[in-house]
Amino acid sequence: xxxxQRTTASLGALLLALVVGAAQAQPQFTGTWVLDRAQSQxxxxxxxxxxxxxxxxxxxxxxxxxxxxxxxxKATRSLARGPRERAMTETFVVDGSERTxxxxxxxxxxxxxxxxxxxxxxxxxHTRPAKEAGQPARSFSRESVWTLSPDGRTLTxxxxxxxxxxxxxxxxxxxxxx
Length: 178
Known about the structure:
Blueprint: H1 3-24, E1 31-35, H2 55-58, E2 61-69, E3 72-81, E4 84-93, E5 95-102, E6 108-116, E7 119-128, E8 138-148, E9 154-163, E10 166-176
Antiparallel strand pairs: 1-2, 1-10, 2-3, 3-4, 5-6, 6-7, 7-8, 8-9, 9-10
C-alpha cells in the first residue's frame, strides 16, 4: 500500500468515526419519565383562572412514556388520579418537515419537530374555525424545547404557548423511572 493510499484510508476512517460520533451525540429520550412537581413551574388556575393551585391537580400523577426510533418519537402522557387514568399520545417526525392534521373539531394542526445537538424542538400551531360566520379563525401555537441532563436521568421540557390572550410559559421537569 502506498503512502497516499494509507493517508486516504486513515482520513476515511477518521471521517467515519466523526460521522458515527455525531449520530450518537443526539439525545435519547426513550424511557418512562415521572413529573417532578417541585422542580417544575406549571400554570395554576383557580376558579376564575387566577393563580391559586388546585389541590386535586397536586394528587394527579403524570407520566411521560417516550419511544424513539430513528427520526420518529412517540410520546404518551398519562394522568392518573386514584383509579382513573387517561392518556394522550403524540408522534413526531423529527426531521424538520411539517405535518398537517385535521383536528376533531374541524381545525388544523401543523407540527414541525427537529432533533439536533442536545435538544428536541417541537413547534405546533392549531387553527380553529370561527364559531360564528364573520368571525376570524383562532390560532394558538406552542413551542417546546426538550433537553436531557448530562447523566440522562432528568428531562426538562420548556414550553411557550402563544395565544390571543398573550404568551405563557411553563417548565416541566421529569425524572427517569427506575
